[in-house]
Amino acid sequence: MTTAMHLSSQLAVNVLDARSLLSAFGVLGVGVVLFAETGLLIGFFLPGDSLLFTAGLLCTGTADRGLKLSLAPLLIAAAVGALAGAQCGYLLGRRAGGTLLARSRSARLHEGAKRAEELLERYGHAKAIVLARFVPVVRTVLNPMAGALRVPVRTFTLWQVTGGLVWSLGLTLAGYALGSSVPDVDRYLLPIVAVIVALSLIPVASEVYRSRRDAKAKAARG
Q1: Which of 21, 57, 163, 205 is the right S-S partner for 179, CB 3.0 to 4.6 Å?
Q2: What residues does the VTT domain cover (predicted)?
């Protein structure tokens, strides 16, 4: 009876809510969600940023008395999920080409693919792969896009690992640091997560601004 009730609660989990996911699946859920979000096109809607930050917060034991995660296993699960997912997405794109995206009817997914392609063209492989980690949906579609465009395996692997570690470990540790230093921080969780997501977009916004400034300067000289 208890097992049936536990299974029922897991099936009723809200996949768009970080706290609901963590309550149902714990640390393992973090790895699975990050793998799906970065490696499978069907995972583009999953809350990667807020999941990492909230999970880090819950490692302090101050945000939710009914749920406490362990930091070391969480960091391992986050890193493995993010890195394995990106590599899987790349290999799928390399084998299936653009057919995966062509079959999707999601306007949001196609918009993300367009932005991912623009990133690759504008900033080159290394910078685009790192920056894409911080942009929802784009980090989902850039990996198969890189595979379809035949970005060299060594180049992709090096920079997806770099960006993946900075993103997954950085957001997790940011949540942990805040939860450790601010009492009752869970009362402000939603606005804090919104700020974290906004801050994660700063690298991309900075690159866009720099690119436009350089283009204007080049046009003025021409």
Answers
A1: 57
A2: 46-176
